[in-house]
Amino acid sequence: MKLRRTMLYLPGNNPNMLLRGWLFGSDGLILDLEDAVAVHEKDSARILVSRILKEGEFGDCDVTVRINGVDTDLWEKDLEAVVPCGIDGIRVPKVEGPETVRAVDEALNRIEKEAGIAVGTTKICCLLETAQGIWNAYDVAKASPRVDAICPGGEDLTADLRTQRSVEGTELEGPRRRVVLAARAAGIDAFDTVFPRINDDEGLVKETTFIKQLGFDGKSVIHPRQISVIHSVFMPTEKEIDRARRIVAAAKEASERGLGAVSVDGRMVDAPVVKRAVFTLTRAGLFEEVQ
Ligand SMILES: CC(C)(COP(=O)(O)OP(=O)(O)OC[C@H]1O[C@@H](n2cnc3c(N)ncnc32)[C@H](O)[C@@H]1OP(=O)(O)O)[C@@H](O)C(=O)NCCC(=O)NCCSC(=O)C[C@@](O)(CC(=O)O)C(=O)O
Ligand SMILES: [Mg+2]
């Protein structure tokens, strides 16, 4: 029952951001060892991130680490340094197919065993950043029970598709739809890619409204100022909450009285309507009302 609307990237070579990242109110943090870190800083960033995982503060945030890709000689060293620190999950970049997930899964099994952590604890979030990765989205999502989310990586993906990121996001529409569909079919979460224009709040609201409508659970962010903007888009309105409460109450009463169909505001309330109402209350953080 934990919301994952925003995941803030913290460059793994920046002690200030790594130490203070949890203070900005995002639902999750991604300590990044991949593209935010220059090649000559990979080893020092790994040491820094592992140290901060052991000694830093993260509040209630979901804590994940983006490791380097499996096509490098860095990813296993990354896992060995961060998994024993007890993180919620890892984010694997540029996943192209299920075999990548299986390789990471095997390494995690070994590292968790050696560290005395229950096997399967560390979840995997897969970044799909190539045409091939997007094509294989469902197989990736089902490749291991550890996979709890998939996300398109818009920056790398547009390069692979030989296009540019546009303000309208036309080039990402198909991949985004495929990722949500694959995630829902596999029963896991779908997160959207970062919005790169950090001072364009209007554009961020527009993009977040669109991806929320597609069915995404949340979005990765690169700057603290993007967090509250996204949360406000994901927060249901008072009117939506009020209606959801009345639907859930009507459904409960109907079930207690042994009735099948009921109506609220002149509209039939059936199972999918109740399901959507429960989801609205969940998104509003009213978890106790949906127990
Ligand atoms: C953009 C900029 C340099 C601007 O910095 P500036 O310092 O100019 O900003 P200011 O406005 O001056 O900051 C005001 C105060 O906030 C603090 N502050 C800023 N950002 C903070 C932050 N992130 N965490 C904590 N604190 C932060 C800052 O330290 C300062 O604190 P203080 O000095 O104390 O006042 C900075 O934000 C930044 O580095 N962002 C992260 C970049 C990054 O990780 N990229 C890789 C991940 S994406 C990717 O790889 C795409 C993908 O792979 C996958 C996908 O889509 O998922 C794909 O292919 O699509
Ligand atoms: Mg990328």
UniProtKB/TrEMBL annotation:
Q: Which residues does the annotation say bind substrate? A: 66, 129
Which Gene Ontology BP terms does the record give?
oxaloacetate metabolic process
Protein keywords: Lyase, Magnesium, Metal-binding
Record's Gene3D superfamilies? Phosphoenolpyruvate-binding domains
State the superkingdom. Answer: Bacteria
**Which residues are recorded as binding Mg(2+)?**
129, 156
- The HpcH/HpaI aldolase/citrate lyase domain sits at 5-224
Q: Does the keyword Metal-binding apply?
A: yes
Please give the InterPro entries that the UniProt record associates with this protein: Aldolase/citrate-lyase_domain, Citrate_lyase_beta/mcl1/mcl2, Pyrv/PenolPyrv_kinase-like_dom, Pyrv_kinase-like_dom_sf
Q: What residue ranges carry the coiled-coil annotation?
A: none
Would the keyword Magnesium turn up in this protein's UniProt record? yes
Cofactor list: Mg(2+)
Recall the GO molecular function terms of this protein's record. lyase activity; magnesium ion binding
Matching entries from Pfam families are given as: HpcH_HpaI
What is the name attached to this protein's record?
HpcH/HpaI aldolase/citrate lyase family protein
